Amino acid sequence: MFELSTEDITEGSLLRALLLLAAPLLVQQLALVANQVADLVFLGRFSGAAVAGVSLAFPAVVLLFAVVAVGPFVGTQVLVSQRVGADDRAGARRALGTGLATAVALALAVGAVAYLAAPALVDLLTAVRPAGTDPAVERAAVDYLRVVGLGLVAIGLGDTLEAGFVGWGDSRASLYINLATVGTNVVLDPLLIFGFAPLGVPSLGVTGAGLALVCGSLAAFVLGAAMLAAGRAKGLVGSETFAPDLEEVRELLDIGGPSAAQQVARQSVRLVVVVVVFAAAGGAGLAAYFVGARVAAVAFVPAIGLQQAAQSVVGQNLGAERPDRAGRTTWLGVGIAAGGLAVVGAAQWFVPGDLAVLLVPELSGEALALAEQYLRILAYGYPAIGAAYLLEGGFNAARRTRTSFVATLCQFWAIRLPIAAAGVFLLGYGVQSVFWAVTISNVVVAVGLAVYYHREVDRGMLGRAAETASG
């Protein structure tokens, strides 16, 4: 019932293919969000400084992930899916091997820089310090950044292997990989954060949370490699997997590079926005911003899962020279994502305080009030961000990742940051300016992407992509 062949994706019902491929990815994304929420819940019971410190470091951590994992992930998934659709199994194997090798090289270089530069980066982020700032917040941010930097190799390998399975059409394997990540992290989080005297484990606080994250990624890679060795996704491992070449690296980065740059642009702005939030409302604003980001991560789960599924379905149909089906897949995904997130946003609007306290029971006073405001404002833009994810997936699968990159530059640099900074520093509207800047930028980019995608399809974008993929 849940098995999907290449013929199912390129010849059968698009709705069935999209939903069956997305279902394990949806569960996977829920598991990943549970992973993030676990960190927040345990750290929230450890200390307020720990929550604020990880909140301060988190955009930088995601920036590291963007540089190391996003390019190999997107490049591997798109190449594997298109080559499977074109019945080029040897090419699919080369793409996987090239993605893994690229991820390792990037992780070694970026991880070393992150470890050495962590104190300087945190100093930069806290250059504008409100009165009474707890120095423990900055120490926690440095500790968390350093641990994650040292574990980037495991993170890059696990994500790229997952991309190979999804591109092949086996999203259940991707789910198992991520369940290994979450299970390991959830078990180790309380042990390493609070310590466990019977086993001689000391209390490591924020450092323990970072170690648990890295160990979860390592467990994911080990499980994925074991599944390949046991014969899952037959044909994805062969001599070509272990012989990447420079031409393959170039092609993979040509596809995945703009996606990595897109994430870098996105996270760079979030780093600056954290500074703006910190200047406007101090630790209370940071805590509210962090809670809003975590709740939004839950809300965006359906869109992210659908985007990954759509990229594989569109990619395989382009490889099979079916551009008409590729276009219908994108718009079908847009409708599902926007409709689903409209329901989620409506529910969030009515119970923002309950959601905030559920995640961080100790949240109170100004921090709780700001979190409630942020969650309500975020809810207005949920349908738009769902549509944007799927439209970007349609462009990505057609090897138009640069379009998604440009859209992100407009969303974050041309709209979100100017509105947030002007509202706080020029108009004096406070941290609420940041909250509204997020939602306004989400709506504008969704509308722009929809108009542009429709125009480019009319101009033959998918037909040209099918010729490239099948060739």
From TrEMBL:
* Any one Gene Ontology cellular component term annotated for this protein: plasma membrane
Membrane topology per record? Multi-pass membrane protein
Its predominant location is: membrane
Looking at the UniProt entry, the stretches that span the membrane are: 49-74, 95-118, 144-168, 175-197, 209-230, 271-291, 297-319, 331-351, 373-391, 403-428, 434-454
Q: Which UniProt keywords apply?
A: Antiport, Cell membrane, Ion transport, Membrane, Transmembrane, Transmembrane helix, Transport
Supply one GO BP term: monoatomic ion transport
Q: Where in the cell is it found?
A: Cell membrane
Note one Pfam family from the annotation: MatE
Q: Cite a single GO MF annotation.
A: antiporter activity
The UniProt entry, under NCBIfam families, shows: matE
Q: Provide the protein name.
A: Multidrug-efflux transporter
Organism equals: Salinirubellus salinus
